[in-house]
Write the structure tokens for this entry.
Amino acid sequence: MSILTLARPAAQSDARPAPLLQVSDVGIDYPTRDGALTAVDDVSFDLHAGERLVLIGPSGSGKSTLLRAIGGFLAPSSGAILIDGAPITRPAPDRMTVFQEFDQLLPWRTALGNVRYALERGRKFSRTQAEHEAREWLIRVGLSRFLDAYPHTLSGGMKQRVAIARAFALQPRLLLMDEPFAALDALTRRQMQDELLTLSEETGSTVLFVTHGIDEAIVVGTRILALTAHPGRLAASFRVSAEDRARGSAAFAELERRIQQSVFDGATGNA
Ligand code: ADP
Ligand code: MG
């Protein structure tokens, strides 16, 4: 690239900024003994910085497969996945994933040790800064009394809080969350949904969240994409307003009904 190219002012200053993530015509097949199994079929969407996009779909609709490809753990069979305009080829600290499983922490490190270790490895922080940041984030997710606790002594909800603190602390461009609350009891799940919402709004994080729960999608997302059952294809897209998000409101119930219809009857969305 020449100096002239570098010096040229950005051409799109008055247009909408380019999407952070672009998923274009993505298909993902798994090789099986009976031939290729199509898990994701021709899915396209954009994700802009600051959005919280929820992918919702029944079990087996390819949600985890798509998230793994965006994480860089799996290459798409067709189409392209771009972050900041460049193809994703491998996992990198600009994308952090929180999984459903409670065993994503290093068992031989404390809560503080787990977060600190990730920060030190990310090399953005010095040792002292890493320690400080790790403490701050764990306190923020309500674990001030458990900094020195080992994972096996923590409840499922607490372990997920450590994983969430670790993901936020690393300040990725994109937070990927694959049903992070699915294995929690209903009360804890609800509490964690509210906490995630607060944290993401305070930090302005960009989130791609996967769930099969319609109510969870409405609480967490600013936009929802519904996938059809196997193979996963986009069925409908919904925008979620602050009013829609209020649990128990008429707007919430109406949106819930519309999403349900799109997943089961193929009706279209509101966006
Ligand atoms: P979801 O997360 O929406 O439940 P998945 O992405 O896990 O869906 O799976 C989509 C489809 O791909 C399912 O039919 C599943 O059985 C299949 N699948 C997932 N992982 C593999 C794999 N490693 N090998 C073969 N098939 C797989
Ligand atoms: Mg899954």
